[in-house]
Amino acid sequence: MEMLVRTAIFKPASALVGSLLQAAVERIEAAYLPKPTEVYKGRETLVVQGIFGHFELQRAYYHDAKQGRGHHPADAALGLEGGYTPALAKLICLEGADEQTYLKAERHLEQTGGIAVSARQIQRVVQRVGRGAQQWQERPVKPGSCEHADVPVMYVSADGTGVPMVAEELAGRRGKQADGQAKTRQAYLGCVFTQHRIDAEGHPVRDWESTSYVSSFKPIEQFGPLLRQEAFRRGYGTAAKVVVLIDGANGLANMAKLNFSGCIQIVDFYHALEHAGVVLDALIGKTHSDYQARRGTWAERLLQDQVEALIAETRQECTGQPQALAVEEALHYFATNVSRMQYGTFRQAGYFIGSGVVEAGCKTVIGARCKQSGMFWSEPGAENVLALRCIHSSRRLDEFWKHRLNTHAARNDCLPIKHAA
């Protein structure tokens, strides 16, 4: 009965929306000033789908012979995405980017909202809007656009994870497979969050809903500046302390050095502990009766700023032993990250020493949507979906859509402002 009532209500609601938008079309076209190269070609009918159903709009069409393309002023002013209203397009993108598959998004829209949009159409809208979302993620920072000022401690973190790709995206790429081939492409995820206080036990407390994300398939050399821009949007320029949390990989360490000069770099403690296991495996083997106890000792001493002593003692222990070379290779991780592993000092200062925020983001923002069983992506397909997911997870969905609507409306400006180079 409720479904029937919903259907009955939707029909007049759709007609009302159509009538209101048609009236808006008349006002828009009456005020429109065509460009000198545009020629009026008459009116065309567009079947539009909104949240309540379908309706028709009659709107003017202009053709620009110089540009070789047409223009519907009303479509731009209303912010239509193809044949969808902005409200429905926003909902389609939210469902298409957040559900595990486009088919699940189709079913969810039908079951919860009575909205019939095919999985294929959802994919098309997501990809269309997602291109703009990725560009918006990469937008330059505007002076005075900082969201927060005078942040006591700002954290910047980044990590990479593989996304399964279609064969043509992997041609000529080397990977981790036994035959040297690749099955995935590296996607980088960066996050920025802030801290204003520590709890009663001296543990740092992340500010509620302060985490924002950026993603990209670009190389680390290009991803770093994108993450830096995000940090500036969040108040990097006025932050008292900036801490970069990474996993110790050389690429991420260099990225931090180049883009966040003077910051405090901290290697994730749990990655350090994993590598301690690698050292002990090379030294005594995982099956040794003392393996777990010694791993616990490493954890305790790392928290006491004793990484250099651990390196020296381990080298002394394996001197002249056949496993000395393997142990030295395992110790390289610690030897190159000594300054980033002063965990006792970092904890005393009230800093986080784990990069769990960005690692969880890799699972929820990237993995939950792009690494499902049987999925294979094109780079643009995955990049556009991830851009929308980052914007949503950063609680910037309304801000992005406002920008997009303004961008559409600006296409009607017959004398667009040209900024000096």
Task: Write structural notes for this entry.
By secondary structure, this protein is α+β, with helices and mostly antiparallel strands. 49% of the residues lie in helices and 17% in strands. Strands 4, 5, 6, 7, 8 and 9 form a six-stranded mixed beta sheet that branches. Strands 1-2-3 form a three-stranded antiparallel beta sheet, with helices on both faces. Helix 3 crosses helix 15 (379-393), helix 4 crosses helix 5 (119-137) and helix 14 (356-370) packs across helix 15 (379-393). It is elongated. The N and C termini lie far apart (62 Å). The model has no long low-confidence stretch (mean pLDDT 93).
Order of helices and strands: HEEEHHHHEHEEEHEHEHHHHHHHH
**Radius of gyration, taken over Cα atoms and rounded to an integer in Å:** 27 Å
What is the helical fraction, as a range of percent? 40-55%
Number of helices: 16
Intertermini distance: 62 Å
Shape: elongated
Mean pLDDT: 93
Beta-strand percentage range: 15-25%
Pick out the low-confidence regions: none
Structural class: alpha+beta
**Main β-sheet description:** 6 strands, mixed
Task: Give the strand tally.
Answer: 9
Secondary structure topology:
Elements: H1 2-31, E1 38-50, E2 53-64, E3 69-71, H2 73-78, H3 86-98, H4 102-113, H5 119-137, E4 153-164, H6 167-170, E5 184-198, E6 204-206, E7 212-216, H7 220-233, E8 241-246, H8 250-259, E9 264-267, H9 269-283, H10 291-302, H11 307-317, H12 324-335, H13 343-348, H14 356-370, H15 379-393, H16 397-410
Parallel strand pairs: 4-8, 8-9
Antiparallel strand pairs: 1-2, 2-3, 4-5, 5-6, 5-7
